[in-house]
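hiii so um. not sure if this is the right channel but i have a protein structure encoded as tokens and i wanna go backwards to a sequence. like what aa goes where. can anyone help
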């Protein structure tokens, strides 16, 4: 019997490429997105189905679980990939942005996990994978709100991992570093600097130059390699919680662990000229 994966946020970037990779490996794939009727790259066939799922609408999550089981009989892997990111000074972030940040990156994942876990527990099998970020382990300048949602996701996922220790259900976190995708354009939401907040403008301008500098992005990981890494992690049969992806992510986390957070932050301030 073919195995089945459900992937949220499959309209672009990591989600779409991962859906394509699983399909190439012979899996049944349910690629979910908010507007599947607009999808042009992923084509439905006997093993590829497009379904509407908006993590901010719990009913669409429940419907996806039900329809997937009706179509393929079971779910083997569920990948929570849908994401949204606020970029800018913490003070400049609006209530709407903060709430959406956590609605998508935390509460949306929470709702997906609760929807699929009864199926996994009934079968005493399954892999639940949450796409986090190295930004769930440490904070980068201008990403305080985004990083805080990933910190929360890390805690939630580790807690679930412990809860399910006596089962055959795997819980995994994938923590990529930089990945050149459309995320910055499609899912990244910059803050607006008005009034006294314009005092942050020079900081924002400087950091945007640093983030776009080739020396900063040279260690990013191509999206196709990230997709293969996700597939390998989902199918390795290991009771492993965390998977750090990318040279940049590994360098940042190694500095944090070996030097401590004070020294690591001092080096980061120097690197980002802040």
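sure thing!! here u go:
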């Amino acid at each position: 019997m073919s195995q089945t994966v459900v992937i949220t946020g499959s309209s672009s970037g990591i989600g779409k490429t991962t859906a394509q990779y699983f399909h190439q490996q012979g899996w049944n794939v349910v690629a979910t997105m908010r507007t599947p009727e607009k999808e042009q790259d992923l084509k439905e066939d006997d093993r590829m189905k497009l379904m509407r799922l908006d993590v901010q609408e719990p009913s669409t999550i429940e419907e996806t679980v039900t329809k997937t089981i009706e179509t393929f009989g079971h779910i083997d892997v569920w990948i929570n990939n849908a994401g949204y990111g606020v970029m800018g000074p913490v003070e400049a972030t609006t209530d709407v942005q903060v709430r959406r940040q956590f609605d998508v990156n935390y509460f949306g994942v929470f709702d997906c996990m609760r929807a699929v876990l009864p199926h996994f527990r009934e079968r005493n099998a399954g892999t639940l994978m949450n796409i986090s970020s190295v930004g769930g382990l440490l904070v980068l300048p201008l990403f305080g709100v985004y990083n805080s949602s990933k910190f929360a996701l890390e805690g939630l996922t580790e807690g679930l991992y412990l809860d399910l220790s006596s089962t055959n259900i795997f819980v995994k976190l994938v923590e990529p570093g930089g990945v050149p995708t459309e995320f910055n354009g499609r899912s990244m939401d910059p803050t607006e600097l008005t009034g006294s907040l314009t005092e942050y403008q020079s900081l924002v301008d400087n950091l945007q130059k640093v983030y776009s500098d080739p020396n900063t992005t040279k260690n990013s990981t191509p999206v196709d390699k990230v997709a293969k890494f996700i597939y390998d992690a989902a199918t390795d049969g290991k009771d492993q919680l965390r998977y750090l992806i990318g040279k940049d992510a590994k360098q940042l986390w190694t500095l944090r662990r070996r030097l401590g957070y004070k020294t690591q932050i001092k080096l980061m301030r120097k690197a980002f000229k802040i």
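oh and The chain has one domain: 4-194+221-246.
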